[in-house]
Amino acid sequence: MRDADFFRRWMAAAAAAVEREADRLTELDSPIGDADHGSNLLRGFTAVVAAQEAEPAVAPGAVLQLAGRTLISTVGGASGPLYGTLLRRTGKALGESAEVSDAELRAALSEGVGAVAQLGGAAPGDKTMLDALVPGVAALATSYRAAGAAAENGALATVPMLARKGRASYLGERSIGHQDPGATSSALLLEALADVAEAEGAR
Hints:
Structural class: mainly alpha
Distance between the termini: 14 Å
Strand order of the largest sheet: 1-2
CATH architecture: Alpha Horseshoe
Radius of gyration: 16 Å
CATH topology: Serine Threonine Protein Phosphatase 5, Tetratricopeptide repeat
Number of strands: 2
Shape: globular
CATH class: Mainly Alpha
Number of helices: 8
Largest sheet: 2 strands, antiparallel
């Protein structure tokens, strides 16, 4: 079972991953976006960690809802609403339980991913964060590490895709050959989850 501390550690691990990879995320965003994905997410997840320290939530769902609200209020562009929706909807699905099972987390994340798809009007294959999130969350049924690997593979698979949604879609065929930054940061999020789970002895 996973308690609020587990989810706080996940958000802290995600923030550390974003900090480590911020320059690469911005570099990926440069040819097909606004060249600010890394800096925007770094600002957002730094604020998430600060918010968790200032207002420690006592339930897993509350931790994620606070993180989502913070991202929406601090991250510019499309990333804030999309990541914020992912975490808020996942947190809402977890409810007020003090502890949640891995199966409950998997189901809640599926709801969160569905909300992202609805908000952005995107689907797998459109060269968006869904190309990492959908296979990543599906692989949670196998293990946390499998989820991180599937998300990373999904991000890599965006390179030959034609962008159909988001800022990159304006470039048409010029979007082909570039790895999607949103899919890349989404893979970081699920890899951070796997790292925290493994530290607790989960696969």
